[in-house]
Amino acid sequence: MIELKSAEEIGRMAVAGQFVGELLDELSRVAGVGVNLMDIERHARRRIKERGAESCYWDYAPSFGRGPFRNVLCLSVNDAVLHGLPHDYVLRDGDLLSIDMALGIGGWNADSAYSFVVGAPDPSDLRLIEATEVALEAGIAAAQPGGRIGDISAAIGEVAHSYGYGVNGEFGGHGIGRTMHEAPHVANSGRARRGMRLDPGLTIAIEPWLCKTTDKIRYDEDGWTIRSADGSRTAHSEHTIAVTPAGPQVLTRRPAAGAAKG
Asked: I want to staple 109 with a disulfide (CB 3.0 to 4.6 A). Which of 51, 84, 104, 113 is the partner?
């Protein structure tokens, strides 16, 4: 069942979204060469507790994964792209880090992801990240009232293919609101003018993710961390948006300084 949200409910989601954006920006500045992933995780736990928010990830137990997720962040490094388990790893010069976070405030949730390079970047990594960010903005722009869910998928896929990257169809965006994962599924490739109608009040997370030289994935033994099948670098960008009568409203924008990082 798809629940359309009122303007007031979207406003409450925006409160959570603003904190997600601010905390992602903060974490991108905490991360750096020589920083342990667990220090980033602990910093996020402390800030979420201080804000009185609740992590959507803690105790999350979907059909995949091995046991409940016991962290508040997904931290995916280099060839890891989704659901990376925070662990004892010290970031090195040139590492590509993706941070994914979903949390709720007052019963309403928001979800966002951001990829960037710590230290000196490889230009090809920056191009990969750029492709996910351009695809995300194209998907957001396509989320117009009266349109179709396929418009979003087609826009994302078109950008990915224009950069020369393949698109994996196993994971994509999703509805969000009272819970982290709601209907509908938002694929990262598809046909325009197909699928469900985009009515005002629909709230979704749009999240293009790409692997540099493959569209295949593999799982770590932890059952959570998803990597490119060939070990190539990966990137992931995500925002929570609301479809409104005036067009798409992004609820998880990062502050301008963070958005300029990479």
From this structure: 104
